[in-house]
Write a structure and sequence with these properties.
6-stranded antiparallel beta barrel, Thrombin, subunit H, rod-shaped, 26% strand, alpha+beta
Length: 284
């Protein structure tokens, strides 16, 4: 049995050496070899394409996952940038507003020797018939009723009520000649103080204009002029900007004239206001 196996092994070795000798150095294949090579190549191609497709699909899934992670990171970065941009714009706007208000405060104090106490608007009345404003300064800060309140743009109104820590401001938009609500304002024209005079006696909510009345026909007031407080009446300190003359016309009875004045203060955008403290004339 062992001799038989050895004999078969020797025969196989001889056949292998013969085949190697037969094929070594040949460039042309026999038809069985061609058949086997083509068959093997075809089978290999059939098997290779699905395997390659599966491999590409797995690679695409991996790349898609990476792209999704990258997109999510980009979205987070863009959202963070948008938030930072909004925050920067708010800070920049607030900085510009505060610089403007500081400059206004310093100029006014040099001109009129008034003290300006800056206050935050902390509330507004929702009652359309009582559009008062609440500020965060009160009696402990030296606030008293009838003190004038303004912004760097223009006159807002008068302090009407004072508590220990807060105060209520009645805006000039409550002025009404028919109901007598509000305190009328003695006014003049900036640069024409000696020759111009009138009384702000009402506000028209439909036009958004203040009504300046009792203007003399020889008064040099003209559209575009800046209306300021005259200081007469000892309620509103002089020199506070009220608004701009829009037009001028004959008064109701033809004896004097009247004008529409666009308020300078932006009542829908009040954030900080100034309470004006006038020096006590009776103080030593």
């Amino acid at each position: 049995m062992r001799n038989k196996r050895l004999f078969i092994l020797m025969i196989g070795l001889i056949v292998f050496i013969a085949v190697m000798g037969f094929t070594l150095g040949r460039t042309r294949l026999t038809w069985p070899e061609k058949f086997l090579s083509d068959t093997f190549g075809t089978l290999q191609g059939i098997l290779y394409r699905p395997a390659s497709a599966v491999s590409d699909f797995i690679g695409d899934l991996s790349r898609l996952s990476a792209i999704q992670k990258e997109n999510e990171l980009l979205r987070q970065t863009v959202a963070q940038y948008a938030r930072e941009q909004v925050r920067y714009n708010l800070i920049e706007a607030e900085n510009e507003r505060l610089k403007k208000e500081l400059g206004f405060k310093e100029r006014q104090e040099r001109l009129y020797k008034y003290r300006y106490l800056i206050a935050q608007v902390v509330g507004r009345s929702s009652n359309p018939f009582d559009p008062t404003i609440r500020i965060n300064l009160g009696a402990r800060d030296g606030i008293k009723p009838q003190m004038a309140v303004t912004t760097s743009d223009g006159l807002v109104g008068l302090v009407s009520q004072v508590s220990e820590f807060t105060s209520t401001v009645e805006p000039i938009t409550v002025l009404s000649a028919t109901t007598g609500q509000g305190v009328q304002i003695a006014a003049t024209i900036l640069g024409k103080e000696k020759d111009s005079f009138g009384i702000i006696e009402s506000y028209d909510p439909e036009t958004g204009m203040l009504q300046l009345t009792k203007i003399d026909e020889n008064d040099p007031m003209a559209p575009g002029d800046t209306v300021i407080t005259s200081g007469l009446g000892n309620v509103y300190p002089r020199g506070i900007i009220i608004g701009t003359v829009v037009d001028r016309q004959v008064g109701d009875f033809g004896l004097t004239e009247k004008a529409n004045v666009l308020p300078a203060a932006r009542f829908d955008q009040l954030q900080e206001v100034f309470v004006i403290v006038v020096p006590d004339v009776d103080a030593p």
